[in-house]
Design brief:
The protein is of the alpha/beta class. It contains 14 helices and 22 strands. The protein folds into 3 domains: 224 residues, FAD/NAD(P)-binding domain (3-Layer(bba) Sandwich); 111 residues, FAD/NAD(P)-binding domain, CATH 3.50.50.60; 114 residues, Enolase-like, domain 1. It catalyses: N(6)-[(R)-dihydrolipoyl]-L-lysyl-[protein] + NAD(+) = N(6)-[(R)-lipoyl]-L-lysyl-[protein] + NADH + H(+).
């Protein structure tokens, strides 16, 4: 006999597990289905983010940053080290431990909030009395019936045509997180978040890294002043980045890959590398969901079609996260998951796409929220800009990390903050103040009048806001 639930969530990534927990908090009976497994077959909820994305990449970034500091910067602090060596298996092992802690944490949260977890693949069977019939295919098959279904199946890496991932030579984010040895030469196709972060990891650990990007401008999605500063910093570190390239037919040999490409000037070039990371975007994951079985509508790009409230074309079926429109960000998925759970409960869920921050966890870190200068100029918006360099910030000097700046963009008449862009130390943490101010439609003057502790990096935010009115105090 089928097990009955008010809500069944398919997928336990950031959107799915958060939706399940919030729905349970609101008094509903909830089940969450997820097929991800550890190497030994145990449940590994958390989706791409926890298993092969946000969490493991940050663990490797932290470890590789320590290695970089020990090799090149500890001497600046009077700490002299000799014979620094790398135990890659220990470094990767630490990453695996961090991932498992997050997996176990989600299972604990399910238990705490009385969410029933099913380890397997969830798919639609039919529309039945009482809701939707859902099949769980796993070690033990289960039949569920749900009044509401939340699809949170996430995304998968996009492969180059004719070049499938083998995770040995041609790597997705998954394979790039578990290389058994540091490659002498590493190619990266795509200078987006994944390409820059993973390229940074292996460059710090000793690889010669070359990044090839098809777009003519580096980090075209970011404010171009920020992008230029970041590009300059990456080049200084040794990351080789070519933009405006057109990739030819890649040939795989026994020990290397040959990547022919045309550079921005139109000249033919050739890159030979030991390993190749392909990070050209991600595609929605709907395989095995039973889309055709129940007539679930997809859009022209293969995403589950939803309205502004994340409702699909099917009654009481919702979808959130990477599998729907919008930025593929874990925190966007979480916000949608909470909003959908609250809408099911008759409340008014809230997601403001205009205040979703973006972060790249390189060194320097890059973070932004709202509109950038090129967008404001394109729409003809009358705005003011203020910026403040970390080189003039006391805490940044003490940290020994003065690269970059904070930039605040505000409406020329109302002073409302329209966007904030940061390149520099701890940008990922600093951006939250900007998100809060913008969510409340605050002004640059509001940031400027708030007392910030001294000495802190956050003072750069205050000074950038002061700069909007041409009255910085420390620069």
């Amino acid at each position: 006999m089928a097990k009955q639930f008010d809500v069944v969530v398919i997928g336990a990534g950031p959107g799915g597990y958060i939706a399940a927990i919030r729905a349970a908090q609101l008094g509903m009976t909830v089940a969450c289905i997820d097929a991800w497994s550890t190497a030994d077959g145990k449940p590994a909820p958390g989706g791409t983010c926890t298993n092969v994305g946000c969490i493991p990449s940050k663990a490797l970034l932290q470890s590789s940053e320590h290695f970089e500091q020990a090799n090149h910067h500890f001497a600046d602090h009077g700490i002299e080290l000799k014979g620094v060596s790398l135990k890659l298996d220990t470094l990767i092992g630490r990453k695996t431990t961090v991932v498992k802690q997050n997996n176990d944490g989600i299972l604990y949260l399910f238990k705490k909030n009385k969410v029933t977890f099913f380890h397997g693949t969830g798919s639609f069977v039919a529309h039945v009395d009482g809701g939707w019939s859902i099949k769980v295919a796993g070690k033990t098959d289960e039949d569920l019936v749900a009044k509401h279904v939340i699809i949170a199946t996430g995304s998968a890496p996009r492969a180059l045509p004719g070049l499938p991932f083998d995770e040995t030579q041609v790597l997705s984010n998954d394979g790039a997180l578990r290389l058994p040895a540091v490659p002498k030469t590493l190619g990266v196709i795509g200078a987006g978040v994944i390409g820059l972060e993973l390229g940074s990891v292996w460059r710090r650990l000793g690889s010669e890294v070359t990044i090839l990007e098809a777009m003519p401008d580096f980090l075209a999605v970011a404010d171009q002043q920020v992008a230029k500063e970041a590009h300059k910093a990456f080049a200084k570190q040794g990351l080789v980045i070519h933009t405006g390239v057109k990739i030819g037919e890649i040939k795989s040999g026994a020990k290397s890959l040959t990547v022919p490409y045309t550079d921005a000037s139109g000249a033919d070039q050739k890159l030979v590398v030991d390993k190749l990371i392909v990070s050209i975007g991600r595609v929605p994951h709907v395989d095995g969901l039973g889309v055709e079985t129940v007539g679930l509508k997809l859009d022209e790009r293969g995403f589950v079609a939803v309205d502004d409230d994340c409702k699909t074309n099917l009654p009481n079926v919702w979808a959130v996260g990477d599998v729907v429109r919008g930025p593929m960000l874990a925190h966007k998925a979480e916000e949608e998951g909470v909003a959908v759970a609250e809408r099911i409960a008759g409340q008014h869920g809230h997601v403001n796409f205009g205040t979703i921050p973006s972060v790249i966890y390189t060194s320097p870190e890059i973070a932004w929220v709202g509109q950038n200068e090129q967008q404001l100029k394109k729409e003809g918006r009358d705005y003011k800009a203020g910026s403040f360099p970390f080189m003039a910030n006391g805490r940044a000097r003490a940290l020994g990390d003065t690269t970059g700046f904070v930039k605040v963009l505000a409406d020329a008449k109302t002073d409302e903050v329209l966007g904030v862009h940061i390149v520099g130390p701890q940008a990922s943490e600093l951006i939250s103040e900007a998100v809060t101010i913008m969510e409340f439609r605050g002004a640059a003057e509001d940031i400027a009048r708030i007392c910030h502790a001294h000495p802190t990096l956050s003072e750069a935010m205050k000074e950038a806001a002061l700069a909007v009115d041409n009255r910085t105090l420390n620069f």
